[in-house]
Input
Amino acid sequence: MTIREAGDALRARRISCLELTSQCLDRIFKLNPRLNAFLTVTEESARARARELDGELAKGTDRGPLHGIPIAHKDLIWTKGVRTTSGSKLFADFVPDSDASVVEKLDAAGAVMLGKTGLHELAYGVTSDNPHFGTIRNPRDPERSPGGSSGGSGVAVATGMAYMATGTDTGGSIRIPASFCGVAGLKPTYGVVDRSGIQPLGFSLDHVGPLAASVADARVTFELMAGNSRRRPAVKNIGEIRIGLPDNFYFSGAAAEVRDAVHQAARKAEHLGGRVTHVRVPDVNALNAAGRVILLAEASALYEPYLARREDFGSDVLALLDQGRMVPAPDYVNAQRLRKVLLNEFCALFESIDCLFTPTTPITAPRIGEKEVELDGRREDTRIAATRLVRGMNGLGFPALSIPCGNSSAGLPIGLQMIGRPFEEDLLLSLGEALEQALPR
Amino acid sequence: MIPAIPCEQVERLQPVVEALLEDLRRYTQALAPQIDLALAYQPAPEPAESVS
Output
């Protein structure tokens, strides 16, 4: 059931907010022991809030499309009075005294918070294999990773434990779990959704956005999360949308099944009226190098006060924090300058297209603990492979939406990434909504 | 006082960082003519036109 369908059922009195919430809680209690998507379940407050919202509806107060809809928040997003660990031993007992801006907005819109979803430690990684709070598992195959860092949010919406879940994305952390779990995930334009009250990682690159079972559900929640921030409305007709299909970078080194599924999605978009043209993209390898250097330096600067507590970090995160301390200041500054050059080049590309179609990840979900994957006969670090096609848009701040576009022969989801111009989330969401009806799931 | 990174960790990680920085420096050099001499820190892209 989508958020709209649930809302229709609520307003027709076919179901109550409390019953919707109970259904989600039942799924959590059934599935979470195996999948570990939730770190904290706020059962009591969720039921109390649902009763309150039922009372409002009975009195004729309707807060809109999210009224009574059960949702979850990634556990680095501050929730007043509810533990917020950031997936880290450092913050294992941290209880915020205020809500993050997005929590306030979704709460005011009538959402029912079910709890907090697990993540890669400090959101600094893509496996969600967390040494402090356990491994999060992919619902399609529990021996595989759900991706990360917003792994718990991806699993929660893929399994119907929640209708939507918030995520953050510094190097692909919304889009990678969306791709690996077969759900929709939107990384909005940099700054469009307020990050206050969210544990940072790399201030130049951090974004917050929704993960949901469908694009329509992602749209409903994104619009509430973004509030009145400036955005450009979509063109009305899909036939007016110019879609760029990259001839370089994005498809080389991607698994054959992934390449085929994304090309098939482009053909579907063409059947819907979109105008597909082949393009050459600027140097994304350069953009990725700049993004990695920026993130290493910014994350290490952020966690410098905690670096004496080496035993409190997982080995992979500690290695990245140590690497960040080895980045000289001139290289950090030059990475920022390089980013500006590539921003100009991408802006020039987007004068001739409205969006770019690429795979979200060149691979489907890897096995838990798999450090390297094989692509085109070449071994590649799993983290580098998973972030290769998504990291660039964190550096540029362009919006990017991942939607499922088919399955591999092993039955694992494949993600299509649609990249748009700044402030044009609406165009991506409109095209995504039209496409998801036409694409296999 | 932040403790020094243990030697064995430095030995293991330094080549990884150096490889990344070499890449970055190569790209920076290749694009040098386009790189603004000013410190070009601009986290958010500017829209081409004003929108509501």
User: Anything to note?
Assistant: Residues 330 and 336 of chain A are 10 Å apart (CA to CA).
